[in-house]
Each structure stands twice: as structure tokens, then as C-alpha cells.
Amino acid sequence: MTKCTTGDATASASLRARAVQCLAWSIVSDLADAAKRLLLGRPVRSEHLGHTLLPKRIALPVFASDALSSVAYAPDEILLTLSIAGLAAVSISPWVGLAVVAVLATVVASYRQNVHAYPSGGGDYEVSTVNLGPTAGVTVASALLVDYILTVAVSISSGAQYAAAAIPALRGHEALFAISLVVIIAMINLRGVKESGTAFAIPTYLFMFAIGSMAVVGVVRHFLGNLPMASSSSYQMLAEPGFEQGLMGIAGGFLVLRAFASGCAALTGVEAISNGVPAFRKPKSRNAATTLLMLGGLSVGMVMSILLLARWTGIHFVEIPAEQLMVDGRSVGPDFVQDPVIAQLSHTVFGSFSPAFYLIAALTGLILVLAANTAFNGFPVLGSILAKDGYLPRQLHTRGDRLAFSNGILTLAIAAIVLIWAFDAQVTRLIQLYIVGVFVSFTLSQLGMVRHWTRHLKTEPEADVRSRMRRSRVINAFGFMMTATVLVVVLITKFTRGAWIAILAMICVFVLMKSIRRHYDLVRRELALGPDPDAAKALPSRVHAIVLVSHVHRPTMRALAYARASRPQVLEAVSVGVDPDDVARLRTEWESLALPVPLKVLDSPFREITRPILTYVRSIRRDSPRDLVVVYIPEYVVGHWWEQLLHNQSALRLKGRLLFTPGVVVASVPWQLASSEGQTGLEDRLRGAPGRGY
Predict the structure, then answer these.
(1) Surface-to-core class of residue 464, CB atoms within 10 Å of its CB (0-12 exposed, 13-18 middle, 19+ buried)
(2) 238: number of CA atoms within 13 Å, CB side?
(3) 602 in any annotated domain
(4) Strand (E) or helix (H) holding 592
(5) Integer Cα distance of 634 and 444 in angstroms
(6) pLDDT, averaged across the chain
(7) Which CATH number does the domain housing residue 291 bear?
(8) pLDDT on residue 3
(9) Residues 236 and 309 grouped into a single domain
(10) How far is residue 489's CA from residue 483's CA, in Å, rounded to a whole number?
């Protein structure tokens, strides 16, 4: 704890009071610092950055939790969309899943090329910027930033709904619960990438094991002929008006496309690995590519097993149960609670073994929450790269105490909280905004990779390398065609259902980043030395120093002493005459001290302080444009916020106006009042320094 002394036994009451205040402030400061260290850990030195790199066993749950968690809602969205056309439409859900799997496999193969070609961590943004130009790069960046925010909002909201299904007391409070989860995950990530990965690894692997066990048991029971039907299979499913004939006609085809687009949510998170290559241990590219392959295999197996089991057990999962589900010819009613597909499957597959059901339900809800961790690792890294390139505020580029990009983590958390609150943590509404951004980045990235291989083929002389490049170009070209097709489908099927909000958000982020870059470029041009560096080194012809005087007291004397020590060519004291009696008293005191500095009193018939000084300073600049005017302003340093309201108001207003006057330097001369003692703890440290007594 910071030391605080009360002085000797004969200290006055005021000194003892200040000592008590100093001690209290030190205790509060130390407690705040201890709380920060307890929550976030001790600061980590920059040279320890290498110790934060991730092995594959930790990188998989860190970067793949988003893609793996999508099996908790992507199959649900496929079944939910197809249920609009009734029971017959639901029977094709495995075929829709196969189409999603084909796209997923293509994207994984394509991104394995990306991580080898661009291992610096820029991912889709770097690929698009280098090969398609800055505008394409910023487009991809805006899409990814929005998609990362939506990833947190969707996954956390979905996890909150699973929790509410298991804990009835949470019903109606899902949004507040989801916001609390965002805060917790943000705090864990503020401790560092490796620490958050270690904390999230065990639940992620348990989820993989649980879903894998359910799939194996379900498939075995199906082929043994003892897999029971789900409880929801006994309900009659009604088609919505216009779909009584199932998937016939254009409307039916459009519905299948909608189901496919919703199912493509399973692809979200694949791009996170290409953005996070720098976080892997060496060899970075190879480890990232291996992790991508593992992610693809796990996602394919989980999605298809859930859709097949849902088909075999006859699960009915609809958008509006009260209108689409019937039992004995009557509606199930508005109070009917429809469990998610995985919850229904686990109950059906494991039957009377309830511990397995509760374990899978708990792990599914947990993995949905942890999926946000992928975004918390991808968003700050991408934000840092964009900040370095001048498209986002520079504060996002720096690492915090724990070598994590703290400002990026906090920015993502705040944006996700706003989105969750605005949409009341309803996944059905949020999911319509989802995957638009990720397929924009997929498409432009694959097109950029095609351009990348084409450019390098022109200069590569070795035949085996050229052959490998051609194969890579074919993979990326096929990936471009697939992702572009899905993007068109997503835009057509989801635009009016909420995707326009995501597109509008991307446009706003794009314009914002371009504006920030223009601002930084403008500032850089203004601050540049220019073609004649000697002109920037030219000294002013004279320095005209002005000390502002309101009273003849110790702060004024200190300001005069500082001004005289700088040895300006012209030095004068300036006061503003508001009250004649005060002016006369000031002149008398000034003359009695025989100060070697002339006093000038500016007339102020309207009792203003700021305007007469500004007018006088500008007149000096107008008469001598090459002169430098330095204005010394005595200021009080106080220890309480309410004291600040009682002092320095005129000085603050004057400084604010003088800062916009070219050729003027404002010098604040502080005078520490007694209440400011002990506010920083510096005095106490100095008392304990060598050569200083207690």
C-alpha cells in the first residue's frame, strides 16, 4: 500500500486532516488497483508476447467455437424455414444440409490457400486490399466488423434462450442475462488471448464430445431399429397460407433458397482463423491450415448428423408454434414452449437417461456463449490492423496491460450490448442480419486470391511451383463462384427480412472508415515538413511574452518568474479592467513591488474577460506576424471536483479560444493549493526517496 505520513506529533489539525485525506485516497487507489489486478491479472511485459501464442489444441476452441456453435442454430433455421411449407418440405432438410456442406468444404479449402499466402493476420482485408484495391479492402473490413458484432449478439442471445429454456426464472429477462454474459466474456478476454483460450478449451471439447456421442448413439439406434420418435413428431404441422401444396412453383423454390441461406450460418467463423494466423505458434501458416481442416471436418459431421437425426426422429420445429402445430385437431396454444432441435434430439436419443439430456443442453448453451470468443479474438486484431492503416482510431492499435487489444475488446462488447438490447436478444430477428457480411468478405477474398495467383504465375519460373499455383487458383476460383452464388441467394432471400439493416450498417462503417482515413491523411499532409525542411526549422523573429494578472499573489509571481526565465524579447503583464477600484488597487500593489515588468490594463466596458485579451493578442500578431506570442496563465490545482467549479473557469475559456489563434502558445503555470496534496501519491513516494525524511 502507498505510504502516507501524518508528520510529527506537533502537526497542526489541518495537516493531520490532510494526512487522513491522503491516507483515504491512497487506500481507495490501492483497492481499485488491486481489483483491476484481481480481474485482469498483472501487466505483462512486451517481450513476453511470444508466450501468448497458441498451440493447435488451444487455437481450435479459440477460433473455431463460432463455427462449431453454429450447429446449435443452423439446423434449426433450416427446419424452421422449411416448416413454412409443411411436413413434406421438412423431409428435404438433409439435402439442404448437403448443399451447405458443399459450400463449407469449398470455403475451408479456399481459406487454406489464404493462410499460406497471407499469414500476417490481415485475412480477407489484406487479400482484398493487395489484389483488388483499398476500396475493396475497406468493403471487406466493414463487412467483417459488422459480422463480428452480429456473431456476439446472435451467439450470446441464442445461449441466453437455451438458458431460459433450462431455467424458467430467466424467461422475459433474456436480454439482461445476455448483456451480463457479454460483460463476463469481455473481462475474460481482457486477461489475454492465451488465458481466454485455456478457459474456453475444456467446455468446447466437452461440447464436441457430447454432440459426437449423441450422433453415434442416435445412428447406432437408428440402424438397430430402436431409435424412438421425438415427442414433437406427434403434432400435426400446418403449412402457412400459400404453401398448402408444399414446395411447388416459384414460391417453393424460393423457400428452399431461404432455408439454404439460413443454413449457411454454419460457415460463419471460418474466416476468423485467417485473421488470427499471428496468434498461432510456429509454423504459423501450417498450424492455421491444419486447424481449418479440423474445423471443417467437425462442422460437417455435426451439421449432417443433427439434420439426419432430426429427419429420422420426425422432429417438428416451426416458427410460430401456436399457428403451425396442432394436437388432436386443436392448436397447441400460445403457452406452448418449443425446445431447440438439439434439446429435442438429446431427449429422444438418450430417452430416460436424463443426465445426458441436461449435460448436452448445458454444453450447447455454454458453447453458444463461448462462440462470442471467436469474435473477441478476431475483431480486436482486425481493428488493430485497420487502425495501423489509418481507417480506425489509433487507440485500437495499441495493446493493453495483458498484451490484448483492450480497446478493440471494449468496442466490440459495447456494440454487441447495444444490438442485443435493441433486438431484445431474439435470435429469430438477429439471424436475418447475419451471414450477409461474412459472404461479402468470402466473395471478395476469393476473387482477390484468384488475382493473387494470376499475378504470381506471370513471374514464377519453376514448373512445379507453377503447377501448385494453378491448382490453388482453381480452388479459389471455384470458391469465388460458390460464395458469390450464396451471397446473391442471401441478398435475395433475406433483404426484406432484415438483411438490409446489416447492409446499411456496413455502408455506415465503410463511410466512417473512409472519413477517418481522409482525416488522418489531411493531418499528415498538414504536419509534413514539406519540400523545404529548413523553413520548418526557422526561429520566430521575436518572442512576445504576456503574463495574465488578476491579483498580485504567489501564483502571479511564479508565472512572472517562469516568463522571465525564458528570456523573451518582450515581456509584459496584462490585466483586464472590469472594476475601477480593483484596477487602482492592482496598480498600487504592482508599483509598490517595483517589478521590472510593465503592467498593461485592458479596458473592458462590457465587463468581459476573454474578448479584450483575445483582441490584444491578435493585434500583436497582426502588427508582427513573425513574432511568437506566449501567454502565461496562472492556474490553481485543486483536490476536489467541486473546487474545480469554483476556480479556473476564466482560464479554461481563455485557453480554449487562444488555442485556435495561429502563432500563439499557451503556457499554464500551476499553483497547487493545499487540498491537492496527496492526490497523486507522488508526495508520499518522494518522502521515502533517498535523502528525504519522513
Answers:
(1) exposed
(2) 15
(3) yes
(4) helix 580-593
(5) 58
(6) 80
(7) 1.20.1740.10
(8) 43
(9) yes
(10) 10
Residue 669, beta-bridge partner list: 634
Say which CATH number the domain at 679 has.
3.40.50
Q: For 436-459, how does the pLDDT look when each residue is reduced to its tens digit (9 = 90+)?
A: 888 888 899 889 999 998 998 888
Peptide bond preceding 134 in cis form (omega within 30 of 0): no
pLDDT classification of 682: cutoffs 50, 70, 90: very low
Domain assignment present for 694? no
Burial (CB < 10 A; 0-12, 13-18, 19+), residue 497, is middle
Asked if 310 and 75 count as a contact pair (C-beta separation under 8 A), the reply is: yes
Are 557 and 482 part of one and the same domain? no
Question: Whose CA is closest to 546, among 488, 502, 612, 492?
Answer: 612
Q: Do 29 and 52 fall within a single domain? A: no
Determine phi and psi for 653, rounding to 5 degrees: -65, -40
**Residues 6 or more apart in contact with residue 587 via CB below 8 angstroms:** 599, 601
Query: Does residue 295 share a domain with residue 259?
Result: yes
- On whether the CB atoms of residues 347 and 231 are closer than 8 A, the answer is yes
Q: Give the total residue count for the chain.
A: 694
Do 509 and 583 belong together in one domain? no
What is the rounded distance in angstroms from the CA atom of residue 557 to the CA atom of residue 80? Answer: 79
Residue 648: C-alpha distances to residues 265, 522, 635, 652, 669 (Å) = 57, 34, 6, 6, 12
Pairwise CA distance, residues 523 & 518, whole Å? 9
Q: Is there a domain that residue 559 lies in? A: yes
Same domain membership, residue 57 and residue 36? no
End-to-end C-alpha distance for the chain, whole angstroms = 16
The DSSP H or E segment spanning 25 is helix 13-40
Supply the pLDDT for residue 622: 87
The answer to whether residues 28 and 59 belong to one domain is no
Residue type for position 661: T
pLDDT of residue 403: 58
| Interstrand relation of 570-577 and 543-548 (parallel, antiparallel or unpaired) | parallel
Per-residue pLDDT, 48: 47
Apex CA 130: angle with CA 128 and CA 133, to 5°?
70
465, 405: one domain: yes
The pTM score is: 0.71
Does residue 507 sit within a domain?
A: yes
pLDDT at 286: 87
CB 527 within 8 A of CB 562: no
pLDDT band at 689 (very low <50, low <70, confident <90, very high): very low
Helices (H), 371-462: 372-388, 406-422, 427-430, 436-457
Q: Residue 565's closest CA among 548, 550, 545?
A: 545
| 155 CB burial (10 A radius; 0-12, 13-18, 19+) | buried
- Cβ–Cβ contacts within 10 Å for residue 680, how many? 12
**Contact between residue 61 and residue 204 where contact means Cβ atoms under 8 Å apart:** yes
Continuous H helices in 133-244: 134-166, 174-190, 193-224
Beta strand 599-603 with 543-548 is unpaired
Find, among 385, 366, 409, the residue nearest to 195 by Cα: 409
Q: Which three cell numbers stand for residue 429?
A: 430477428
Number of domains in the chain: 3
Q: Which domain holds residue 138?
A: 46-330+337-523
